[in-house]
Amino acid sequence: MEMRVKAVTIMILLPVILYCIPCGESGGRGRSLVQRSPALGVDYGKTADNLPPPSAVAKMVQNTTISKLRLYEADPAILQAFANTGIGLVVGIGNDQIPSLSQLTVAQNWIKNNIVPFVPATDIIGILVGNEVLFTGDGALISQLLPALQNLHTALVGVSLDQQIKVSTPHSMALLSSSVPPSAGRFSESFDMKSLLDFLQKIGAPLMINPYPYFAYKSNPTDQTLAYSLFKPNPGFYDTNTGLTYTNMFDAQLDAVYSAMKYLGYTGIDIVVAETGWPSVGDPTEAGASLQNAIAYNGNLIKHVTSMAGTPLRPNRYIHTYIFSLFNEDLKSGPTSERNYGLFKADMTMAYDVGLLQSPSAGPSPAPRTGGPVTATPPLAGGSVTSPPTRTGGPVTAPPTGKVWCITKPGADEKTLEANLNYACGQGIDCRPIQPGGPCYSPNTVACHAAYAMNAYYQAAGRNSWNCDFAQTGTLTSTDPSYGGCVYQTV
């Protein structure tokens, strides 16, 4: 059953070597015709009787800056519709399926039937098991959650998809027993978080949370709380323990979770926001549910999570975030707000404009490179810029465990690297970080800029080993090549 929940980088500095210090993160996914945000996802719920067919939805999403969608079930029609679109999909599993998935054979069959037939054409990047399971009060269900997660991961390993697809489970902010100030964030002792965090750390998966500043404001509707919730100018909140000032509730909520993980000894697990949003319509008794506030929250949220500002405790990074939701869902139960979280209406017109739409005929539009060592080839009308550099020899083999990045091989031919850079930047990825003034512009060399673009393409194209071949000038590494404010991303 679909329910809105209320409540995928380990950074290591590399030594400076000749072939580059890689920089940045992918901006788009696949060979889409629009420039996409690597951090921006949306939740695709279907509790409605008037939604367009998945094929129409796929075309619509391709004409937006959305790079990935979260589904609440393994719907084969949706998985098929998004094949070859370059949109990443996170597939959900309902709470009712968790008990059976605590058996390995059931988990293996689930992967075989719901995942394997659709990859690699469909870019499935994650599986979310259950919905706020820790807060159901069902002891038996809670005890079966981790075995289900472990079995699904084991099943993915069995079909060599564990590097591409990560398994996790979403939580509301009730996961914390304390969150103010953010540095005092602690997990509730009612839950065995260490076992779950051990698992996530082992497989390189993120902790999924669902911060909703709307609910915090609804419970304390003051002008100052509203500005703090909507990313608007406000006095901010000063954390005396860290000396950091928080100017929005979203960052404070995330950093409270970071602090809770750090308190238990976990500092290398990323956080992904599985749900957050703001209703555009509500009942008269629902404080803050309005079109104006929805535009402010989601518009400012999108700017924030895609800006690489990060949070005060974890700055200089994208915050991978799924906004609830793609459509208004007319069959949702509860107050009016529950049926009005959509960014789009059922007829696929925008419920309101927060800058998601782009022209489908615009073509990929990396920013012009001025002053850099090379200039990206302009895209051909309506298609990709050129063929990727010819592959030679066998496929590159990814490290067996952990996250993976694509970088240039030492001594790679500069002319080939220039071709790699031109090709990758022409595929719709965001090459702005390697433009002058960008966080990854220095060092200003063909090798460095090519490595950034090659990794961006590799991550966007599905993270298959052949996507990092580049005529044998690329290689995969499990050591994060990020440095300074330049972040190399992996999902």
From TrEMBL:
Pfam families: Glyco_hydro_17, X8. It catalyses: Hydrolysis of (1->3)-beta-D-glucosidic linkages in (1->3)-beta-D-glucans. Keywords: Disulfide bond, Glycosidase, Hydrolase, Secreted, Signal. Gene3D superfamilies: 1.20.58.1040, Glycosidases. Its EC number is 3.2.1.39. It comes from the Eukaryota. PROSITE patterns: GLYCOSYL_HYDROL_F17. It is an enzyme of class 3 (hydrolase). It is found in: Secreted. Residues 404-488 form the X8 domain. Coiled coil: none annotated. GO terms for molecular function: glucan endo-1,3-beta-D-glucosidase activity. GO terms for biological process: carbohydrate metabolic process. One of its GO terms (cellular component) is extracellular region. The keyword Hydrolase applies. The keyword Cell membrane does not apply. Residues 1-26 form the signal peptide. Its main location: secreted. InterPro entries: GH, Glyco_hydro_17, Glyco_hydro_17_plant, X8. Residues 359-399 are annotated as: Disordered. Belongs to the glycosyl hydrolase 17 family. This is glucan endo-1,3-beta-D-glucosidase. It comes from Picea sitchensis (Sitka spruce). The lineage of its organism: Eukaryota, Viridiplantae, Streptophyta, Embryophyta, Tracheophyta.
